[in-house]
Amino acid sequence: MSRLIEGGQCGALVRSLDWSGNSLGAIAAWPQSLTAAINLMLNSSQPMFVAWGPELNFIYNDGYAPILGGRHPKAMGRPFKDVWPEIWHEIWPLIEKALSGQATWMENMHLVMERHGAPENTWYTFSYSPLFDDTGAIGGMVCSCIETTAEVLAQRLADFRLALDSELRRAADPAEAMFRASELLGSRLGAARVGYGDIDASGEFVLVERDWTDGTIPTVAGAHRMEAFGPAIIAELRANQTMTVDDVNIDPRVNEGAQAFAAISTRSVMAVPLHRFGSFRAMLFIHHHSPRQWSAEDIALAEETLMRTWDAVERARAELLLRSSEERLRFLDELGQATIALTDANEVLAITTKLVGEHLGVTSCAYADMDQDSDGFTIRGDWSDNGSTIVGHYRLADFGELAVERLGAGQPLIINDNEVDIAPHEAATFQAIGIRATICMPLVKNGKLTALMAIHDRLPRRWTDRELTLLLAVTERSWSHIERVGVIAKLAEINRDLEAMVAERTADLMAAEATLRQSQKMEAVGQLTGGLAHDFNNILAGVGGSLDIMARRLEQGRIAEIGRYITGASEAIKRAAAITQRMLAFSRRQTLDPTPTNVATLVEGMIELITRSVGPAVAVSTEMDERLWPTFVDVSQLENALLNLCINARDAMPEGGSLTISGENMHAHGAKASKLGLPEGDYVCLTVADTGTGMTPEVVARAFDPFFTTKPIGRGTGLGLSMVYGFAGQSGGNVEIETDLGAGTRITLYLPRFAGELETPRPESPGATVETRKTDTTVLLVDDENLIRMAVAEQLRELGFAVLEAPDGPSALRIFEGGANIGLLVTDVGLPNGINGRQLADALRAWAPTLPVLFITGYAEKAVLGHGDLDVRTRVLTKPFTAGSLQETVVNLLQ
């Protein structure tokens, strides 16, 4: 007879039990075939059990123990029927087959089990197989199983979502959308009645335009006073809580409201509230004519259905209000343009707070500057919907310990209801100035709390990520704008003083200039704005002048002369694109296309270009480690960064010298990694060293600042090193400067090591040209900018494509669903109306998995595009781009 082997906790349990009182008898007397089967089961990680003997005594392994729930370990050795009495009638026919010698297999079988004291729906995939004793007769059975409950529920939910989305797309108007969703949800939950109700302006009545029933109870279309159904349950809805009643006749919250439910033939109810802008706007209700217990899955499905349906309803209603919305958007655009030109901080704050308050639908919005000690603040500007103001000085401590803790740590203060979220004594100041809900966003500069911007509501309000994100962006922009206005005002004051004292106050002038330089250093945003304004005004002057002359030449009929002005405007646009690319690199927002890269090979391929660029007076040499690791970077950006560093080195050696490019491997850990600002790990070090003039500590401190340069006017933009710094950081590395005045400079790029293997380049095979596809390829072009969409569409049509245009994701989906044979999707990433470019591409590929996609973007939407997860049927093209770049990308994508 086989010996029982160690088999986990259940194996130990089998050996520890006294089997003499069991129908199986002592372990030593068990048939060899039984002990062999138990040995196999106990040492398997697959959930399994053996049922043996006339009573089918139950022996299971560690993998099966969690399935038993609270019945483990008492189930060990007990008869099968006693272990699972509630499902015995369902599984007995399968057991009979196994005991008759016929193996069975069930996939995703539904069983209602009571493993934790209450019935629960479960699904299993399992097999029952006969077990033979030592004489060859069937002595029992063995089961191997896996619980598939999570997978089944997930698939059912996914199927429901697809069906719901399909029904909502088919709806012609808001009422139909709500009815279709009600019908689908009612059928899924087995309910008798489902519908949507709008809450009237008074907040007292629910208005039901149309509902769905299964035919067993009547409709409740019409107006109903909500309090008639029980004040307690209506209070839950007003508090934005999903309300469920299993039986209205016994639930104490209903009381006299049971009569109102009886009048509409309802015994059990679920209601999901919808709150918008701090008010109770609508509800989804689900009724049944008999008592029932609402599960957590039922509630979650109803809540999700409400949100999905209401989004579709809101979009449909928005289309009906398109004209008024467009008029309001034009007004807001004009207001935003007016703000840019303002030079008075109070005017900036007045317009900004009004814009934010009205856009977010809050009752007030305020901006404040912190005191020097950060213990108090002064509200400089605010707006409210009733004309009241809270301008004045306040102590931060007056708003409670939570405000001091959160804002002092540079974190937003978010209060949905100060009567619930914070202590009564902390809420007193909020309540004194009429605030019930608030988001207060801190601005921290140089480690110090500098300013605050807040939105408020008089009613409780559940704040969303949209409001939080918008307020963060507005806080940063408002502070930068006000600081810019302050710098302009300071400059004007200095200029006025200089006009009166230029002859006798030279020393004061120098001090004022030093103060200004220090102010510019502390205010990076102001410096960035000035640099951009200077360069882009020059570029715009070139483009505008060229366009003006071209217009005149066209009026004069002198067409032959406009070629050079077109060339001039194009060159200016290329320069603007280059500045934008460098700025995105500095801010780590450029769109990168990283690939596994051999840095030594890249440097070797650039030596001739670098040698020509630095000139004959500079000797160029390389020192590359023969075992240099690969890295994962954007090759073109690395080439651009290396060339920038070499040109800077050349400029630091006006009389000539030597330039050395070296590459080595480095492991950064401990203090070394901390000093370099790098996570611990392996890095490739690419160094450019020169024998030039070196830098002072003051220059090194500002070397990576945008628009900072020590070169004469016209000799550089000051974006070269800032671009290198931004590119390195965005690639997961950093940049280090080592220099001594008069003794040269070493600038090192630290790039993370790539752990994989480099692919051997394969020769490209000739692909299909645009001309071979132009007769059978239709392009779906999606961009919300009309001018861009017009230009790209014209370029594609000139290449021979048929082009269908859409301004947003929903419009594009309607074109696709209309049966258009789309061969290529060209889409912007950032699109309005709820569907961005990546989501649109995913939706279309659900129907056409091999659809080629070209993303055109003027920004780095990495949160949407992901990091390195674009497949071979996907490309990214950064705006602005030429017709040639577009053609080349499309040809490669369609090969």
Automatic annotation (TrEMBL):
Keyword Transmembrane applies: no
EC number: 2.7.13.3
Chain ranges of the Histidine kinase domain: 531-755
Spans traversing the lipid bilayer: none
Domain of life, source organism: Bacteria
Pfam families xrefs: GAF, HATPase_c, PAS_4, Response_reg
Residue positions where 4-aspartylphosphate is found in the record: D828
Location of the Response regulatory domain: 778-894
Catalytic activity annotation: ATP + protein L-histidine = ADP + protein N-phospho-L-histidine
Keyword Phosphoprotein recorded: yes
Keyword annotations from UniProtKB, A to Z: Kinase, Phosphoprotein, Transferase
Protein's UniProt name: histidine kinase
Record organism: Devosia oryziradicis
Lineage of origin: Bacteria, Pseudomonadati, Pseudomonadota, Alphaproteobacteria, Hyphomicrobiales
